[in-house]
Design brief:
mainly beta; globular; three-stranded antiparallel β-sheet; five-stranded mixed β-sheet
Length: 91
C-alpha cells in the first residue's frame, strides 16, 4: 500500500469533526487491463500524516461517505480509519 501510483485527485472529504481528510485518486491500470483503480489516502489533521487506506479495483466513480468521525465508507467498504485498510489484491 505504500508504493501505489499517485493518480488524479477526484475528491477530498473531511470527517465530521475535521480530524481526518480522505482524498480519493483515480489511477489508470497498467498493461493490457482496461479501466481504473481508486486509491484512498487518509490525512490526519493534527500531525499531517498521510497513509493509503483504500485500493480498489474496477472502480472509476467512487462513492465515499463519512459514517461518523472514525468510519468512512468507500464503495461500500466501511473502514475504521484508525486501523483498517482495504486492498482488493488481498481478497
Amino acid at each position: 500500500m505504500n508504493h501505489l501510483p499517485k493518480g488524479v485527485q477526484l475528491m477530498s472529504l473531511t470527517s465530521p469533526n475535521q480530524t481526518y481528510t480522505i482524498s480519493i485518486y483515480r489511477t489508470p491500470k497498467r498493461g493490457n487491463a482496461a479501466g481504473f483503480s481508486i486509491r484512498g489516502e487518509l490525512t490526519t489533521a493534527s500531525s499531517g500524516e498521510r497513509r493509503n487506506i483504500y485500493w480498489g479495483d474496477k472502480a472509476d466513480h467512487p462513492k465515499v461517505e463519512w459514517k461518523d468521525e472514525n468510519h468512512v465508507s468507500i464503495n461500500d467498504k466501511v473502514l475504521d480509519v484508525r486501523s483498517d485498510t482495504y486492498d482488493w489484491r488481498r481478497e
